[in-house]
């Protein structure tokens, strides 16, 4: 039995709570949150669990092997650092850290302590993304993929305190690398703030990859509707992944611009449950997660360079170390 704790049971933490309590061979022992109202609401649904407002109760439980952190993004680094220092593996919801210096600190600490450090990059575990990756490999199209157009938008009455870069665009940053099998060589980014606050609520990002490959990323909090769409273009194929569609319509395959077929997704589990199962599996087998230390450092590095381009008014910024990563 793998015993876990959960820190944070707010909007996204409740999703982890639901999934962690449904995984065979996993025992969720502690749920921690500073807000007593959130704990009370969770206890009404899951009365069998232990609840606390004191993180020391979680850190001091020597039987816990891992902790899932789903708190405010600015607190992720310090909480993960404390958990790792106590010898506990951690799954941290995105963004894992707010900059690369913090991510390097965490990854080094986890390596020294021989514990799992995993990011909540949920879409890597999405059955549709895995299906697309498999299709590209089996049809030898992965090396011929040359353009990604990625749109991720919400229509919100109240814009989150977090910048749209770290909240939405971060998904397409790690997915672009995952689909291209390469690291980007340069970035151009423009952002804008149209609502109250100091953070960008709209952002456009161009990531340039080796051999002229390009990922175009658009993310917005103030769009007219929710969008979760990726268009993939290779030398022979156009593929459209729309995560707002039903399962049978999520992936459309076009040939020479003409609709050809739908790619059926055999795996039916929710991405977050697959992510949580993988975390438990990595703890049991002491193996590196699919969204592990290298991915955490990569995303933090790229977001730092995007922030630099934003600060320079959309200037092109060279990213050292671009090229294949597998």
What would you say this structure looks like, in words?
- The structure is a single chain.
- About 35% of the residues lie in helices and about 30% in strands.
- The chain is an alpha/beta fold.
- The protein folds into 2 domains: about 1-125 and about 270-290, NAD(P)-binding Rossmann-like Domain (Rossmann fold, 3-Layer(aba) Sandwich); about 125-265 and about 300-325, Dihydrodipicolinate Reductase, domain 2.
- The strands form 3 sheets. It has a 9-stranded mixed β-sheet, covered by helices on one side. Strands 3-2-1-4-5-6 form a 6-stranded parallel β-sheet, sandwiched between helices. Strands 8-17 form a two-stranded antiparallel ribbon.
- The chain starts with a strand and ends with a strand.
What's the helix-strand series?
EHEHEHEHEHEHEHEEEEEEEEHHEE
Given as residue ranges, the uncertain stretches (5+ residues, pLDDT < 50) are none
* CATH homologous superfamily placement of the largest domain: Dihydrodipicolinate Reductase, domain 2
Number of helices: 9
Give the secondary structure arrangement, pairings included.
Elements: E1 2-7, H1 13-20, E2 26-32, H2 36-45, E3 50-52, H3 55-59, E4 66-69, H4 76-85, E5 89-93, H5 100-113, E6 117-120, H6 127-138, E7 145-155, H7 164-180, E8 182-183, E9 186-192, E10 202-208, E11 214-220, E12 222-234, E13 237-242, E14 251-255, E15 258-262, H8 271-285, H9 293-311, E16 317-318, E17 323-324
Parallel strand pairs: 1-2, 1-4, 2-3, 4-5, 5-6, 7-11
Antiparallel strand pairs: 7-12, 8-17, 9-10, 9-16, 10-11, 12-13, 13-14, 14-15
């Amino acid at each position: 039995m793998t015993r876990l704790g959960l820190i944070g049971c707010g909007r996204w933490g409740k999703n982890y709570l639901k999934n962690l309590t449904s995984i065979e061979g996993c025992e969720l022992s502690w749920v921690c949150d500073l807000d007593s109202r959130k704990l009370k609401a969770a206890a009404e649904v899951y009365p069998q669990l232990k609840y606390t407002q004191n993180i020391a109760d979680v850190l001091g439980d020597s039987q816990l092997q891992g902790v899932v952190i789903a708190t405010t993004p600015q607190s992720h680094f310090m909480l993960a650092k404390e958990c790792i220092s106590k010898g506990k593996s951690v799954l941290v919801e995105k963004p894992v850290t707010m900059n690369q210096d913090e991510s390097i600190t965490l990854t080094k600490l986890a390596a020294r302590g021989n514990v799992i450090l995993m990011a909540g990059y949920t879409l890597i575990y999405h059955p549709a993304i895995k299906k697309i990756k498999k299709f590209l490999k089996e049809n030898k199209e992965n090396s011929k993929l040359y353009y990604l157009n990625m749109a991720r938008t919400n229509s919100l009455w109240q814009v989150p305190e977090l910048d749209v870069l770290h909240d939405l665009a971060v998904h397409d940053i790690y997915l672009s690398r995952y689909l291209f099998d390469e690291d980007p060589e340069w970035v151009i980014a423009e952002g804008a703030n149209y609502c109250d606050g100091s953070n960008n609520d709209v952002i456009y990002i161009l990531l340039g990859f080796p051999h002229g490959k390009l990922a175009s990323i658009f993310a917005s909090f103030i769009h007219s509707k929710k969008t979760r769409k990726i268009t993939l273009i290779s030398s022979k194929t156009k593929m459209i992944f729309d995560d707002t569609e039903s399962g049978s319509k999520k992936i459309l395959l076009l040939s020479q611009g003409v609709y050809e077929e739908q790619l059926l997704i055999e795996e039916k589990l929710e991405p977050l449950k697959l992510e949580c199962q993988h975390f438990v599996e990595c703890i049991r087998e002491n193996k590196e997660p699919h969204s592990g230390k290298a991915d955490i450092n990569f995303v933090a590095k790229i977001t730092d360079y995007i922030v630099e381009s934003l600060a320079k008014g959309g200037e092109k910024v060279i990213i050292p170390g671009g090229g294949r990563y597998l």
